[in-house]
Amino acid sequence: MKPSEKLYWIKTGLAFVAAILCVVLQIYVNMDGTLVFMLGTLLYLASSDLLSGFFKLDRGHGLKIGVGAYIFIWVMIWTLFYTVFKTMPV
Q1: Is the torsion defined by CA of 67, 68, 70, 71 positive or negative?
Q2: Domain boundaries, the chain
Q3: pLDDT tens track for 19-59
Q4: Which contacts of 23-27 are long-range, i.e. CB under 8 A and separated by 24 or more positions?
Q5: Which of 48, 42, 46, 41 has its CA nearest to residue 75?
Q6: Using 50, 70 and 90 to split pLDDT, how confident is the model at 2?
Q7: Of 1, 15, 67, 77, which sits with the fewest C-beta atoms within 10 Å of its C-beta?
Q8: Measuring CA to CA, how many Å separate 6 from each of 1, 66, 84, 87?
Q9: How far apart are CA 36 and CA 24, in angstroms?
Q10: Contacts with 29 (C-beta within 8 Å, 6 or more apart), sequence order
């Protein structure tokens, strides 16, 4: 598997982790949704930079790899879990 493919799949997995983290922070820590959104974006930028260096890819190219998949999965899972946990009876 090429380094760019590995980077793509790692970012896809990190999107799921970031979504779970966002739900936990928003529900249990009572953090504002805007701050949680910025945190998810910061996680993407930091992971892109670190992983691009690790796989020895151009940082500009590494930033573009998997951006669509990350955003789609992150927002979808975040929204789904937030809705499920907020509508559950206590």
Answers
A1: positive
A2: 30-81
A3: 999 999 999 999 999 999 999 999 999 999 999 999 999 99
A4: 23/78, 23/81, 23/82, 23/85, 26/82, 27/82, 27/85, 27/86
A5: 41
A6: very high
A7: 1
A8: 7, 10, 31, 37
A9: 10
A10: none
d(CA 52, CA 41): 16
Rg (CA), the chain: 14
Which tokens hold the place of 38? Answer: 């910025």
What does residue 17 show for φ and ψ, rounded to 5 degrees?
-65, -40
> CA–CA separation, 51 vs 10, rounded Å?
9
DSSP string, 15-64: HHHHHHHHHHHHHTS---HHHHHHHHHHHHHHHHHHHHHHTT--HHHHHH
Residue whose entry in the numeric block shows the structure tokens 């009572």: 30
